[in-house]
């Protein structure tokens, strides 16, 4: 068997050039996909009529669409017919579907989240056992930012399949209610000090003044009676935890000093 080195050399040169073209095409496609994503984000953001969540999702979709077109172009560059590729993919669709069912379910859940929009960018939510502020929604992931500035990435399938608690869905204020035991003789003085502290807090709703009341008697011992003091205040839902912690810290310091 004789080897035609001229034909072999020509084939190597041809496939080598195709490989170089493919690498260049992939590099250009990767840059172009990012540029298109930024362009779509900028265009949709300028209108101020499109929700930020929709903007991020559509921009992400455009980026993956450009990458898909580039991938098909690379396959055609090596002589792979896309029609034959589609036929092969159709024959193996069941196996691919079973292998990627988790990924495909995340994609479908992302579309459902985009259509029904149970939350928006910046909303404070609790979902799948995690709590935080919504930062973005992509094809496969929902990103939250925890109160301690920790990134939380949740697969869209878990988000769509779980109960979503949105603390920012309805306008208005939340309520902070804290109860703790205190000696009956010191209840009035402690209540006055806590009220002064709450009135100086800018997070407290001015339309509803905070209250401190004796809710019930815990120990009726004449020598050392103990009552339960209840502190109530109206705040924004996002500030409820911080205000509650401040009330507890202030009350603990007053009780320790007493």
Could you give a short description of this structure?
The protein has eight helices and eight strands. It has helices spanning 5-47, 52-77, 82-91, 93-99, 101-116, 156-160, 187-199, 240-257; strands spanning 124-127, 130-137, 141-145, 151-155, 164-166, 174-183, 211-219, 226-235.
What keywords describe this structure?
Alpha-Beta Plaits; 258 residues; Helix Hairpins; elongated
Query: What helical percentage do the residues reach?
Result: 40-55%
Strand order of the largest sheet: 4-3-2-1-5
Mean pLDDT: 77
Number of domains: 3
Subcellular location: Cell inner membrane; Cell membrane
Protein name: Small-conductance mechanosensitive channel
Family: Belongs to the MscS (TC 1.A.23) family.
Keywords: Cell inner membrane, Cell membrane, Ion channel, Ion transport, Membrane, Transmembrane, Transmembrane helix, Transport
Task: Please tell me about this protein's structure.
The protein has 258 residues and is of the alpha+beta class. It folds into three domains: 5-91, Helix Hairpins; 117-166, SH3 type barrels (Roll); 174-257, 2-Layer Sandwich (Alpha-Beta Plaits). The protein is 53% helix and 21% strand. The chain has eight helices and eight strands; from the N terminus they run αααααββββαββαββα. A hairpin with a 5-residue loop joins β3 (141-145) and β4. The longest helix is centred in the N-terminal third of the chain and has 43 residues, at 5-47. The radius of gyration is 31 Å and the shape is elongated. 16% of the residues are buried. InterPro entries: LSM_dom_sf, MS_channel_1st, MSC_TM_helix, MscS_archaea/bacteria_type, MscS_beta-dom_sf, MscS_channel_2nd, MscS_channel_TM-2. It is a multi-pass membrane protein. GO terms for molecular function: mechanosensitive monoatomic ion channel activity.
């Amino acid at each position: 068997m004789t080897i035609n080195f001229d034909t072999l050399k020509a084939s190597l040169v041809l496939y080598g050039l195709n490989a170089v073209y493919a690498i260049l095409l992939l590099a250009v496609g990767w840059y172009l996909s990012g540029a298109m994503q930024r362009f779509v984000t900028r265009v949709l953001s300028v209108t101020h009529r499109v929700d930020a969540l929709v903007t991020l999702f559509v921009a992400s979709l455009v980026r993956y669409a450009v990458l898909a077109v580039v991938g098909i172009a690379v396959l055609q560059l090596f002589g792979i017919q896309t029609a034959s590729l589609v036929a092969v993919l159709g024959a193996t669709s069941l196996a691919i579907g079973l292998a990627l069912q988790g990924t495909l379910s995340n994609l479908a859940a992302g579309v459902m989240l985009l259509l029904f929009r149970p939350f928006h960018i910046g909303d404070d939510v609790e979902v799948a056992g995690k709590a935080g502020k919504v930062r973005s929604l992509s094809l496969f992931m929902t990103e939250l930012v925890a109160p301690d500035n920790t990134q939380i990435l949740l697969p869209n399938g878990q988000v769509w399949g779980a109960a979503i608690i949105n603390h920012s869905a309805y306008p208005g204020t939340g309520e902070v209610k804290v109860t703790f035991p205190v000696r009956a003789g010191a209840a009035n003085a402690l209540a006055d000090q806590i009220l002064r502290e709450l009135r100086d807090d800018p997070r407290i709703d001015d339309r509803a003044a905070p209250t401190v009341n004796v809710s019930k008697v815990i120990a009726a011992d004449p020598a050392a009676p103990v009552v339960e003091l209840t502190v109530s205040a109206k705040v924004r839902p996002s500030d409820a935890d911080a205000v509650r912690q401040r009330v507890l810290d202030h009350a603990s310091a007053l009780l320790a000093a007493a």
